[in-house]
Design a protein that fits this description.
about 210 residues, mainly alpha, about 85% helix
């Protein structure tokens, strides 16, 4: 199973190409220009969304290489295959967390304004958002295919951009959302339950497509 996780992680990082970096660079410049001291947090939100979407990109690359046909020859059950993919999702959390910390520290260096609660919310979102993207889209991928899975992720992307816009326009503040630590603690049990349900649905869809 470690080999399966390693393969999924390699596909994830290979998905970080010039297009992804160009999109993130454009967002960074735009947010830095419009969002002031909130720029670091809002950029980290965009990075969280990109990390979630990169897991779909990894699945698409896997499908193009006909990996599943080879995988059927291996003594690895469906449970381990799915557990490996979801473990890879969790193991990429440091990417978004490091992005949240670095972008907020960069905003502090530019604007000389540091709010611990803003950093806390950025880190909480970095831990929660990418797995939510994955657990929502992976069952659609295994049941209905990659294109449908990409479309189903659009509402989640819209919600993130809606949050970014409200912070930019001053309609929301971090104080309105409560303590980030409490938000994370309240969200983790629900996230764990959804994660297990998503894994079960993905495994059923994988068996159906075999």
């Amino acid at each position: 199973m470690r080999g399966m996780i390693y393969k999924d992680l390699c596909l994830f990082f290979k998905g970080i190409d010039k297009v992804v970096l160009a999109v993130l660079g454009g967002l960074l410049v735009l947010l830095w220009y419009k969002s002031g001291a909130y720029a670091g947090m809002l950029f980290s939100f965009a990075l969280d969304m990109m990390v979630g979407l990169l897991h779909l990109t990894a699945l698409e690359k896997e499908e193009k290489t006909a990996w599943r046909s080879y995988q059927r020859t291996m003594p690895v059950g469906v449970g381990k295959v799915m557990a490996g993919k979801y473990a890879a999702v969790l193991l990429t959390a440091p990417v978004s967390v490091v992005g949240a910390v670095v972008s907020n520290l960069a905003a502090f260096a530019v604007y000389r304004t540091f709010w611990p609660e803003v950093l806390g919310l950025s880190v909480a979102a970095a831990i929660i958002v990418p797995p939510v993207f994955a657990l929502f889209s992976l069952p659609f991928y295994y049941w209905l295919g990659n294109r449908i899975a990409q479309f189903t992720s659009l509402p989640l992307a819209f919600l993130l951009f809606y949050a970014i816009k409200n912070f930019e326009d001053g309609w929301w503040t971090v104080a309105d959302l409560g303590a980030p630590g409490s938000l994370l603690l309240m969200g983790m049990p629900a996230l764990a339950g959804m994660f297990l349900l998503s894994l079960a649905l993905s495994a059923a869809g994988y068996c159906r497509r075999k």
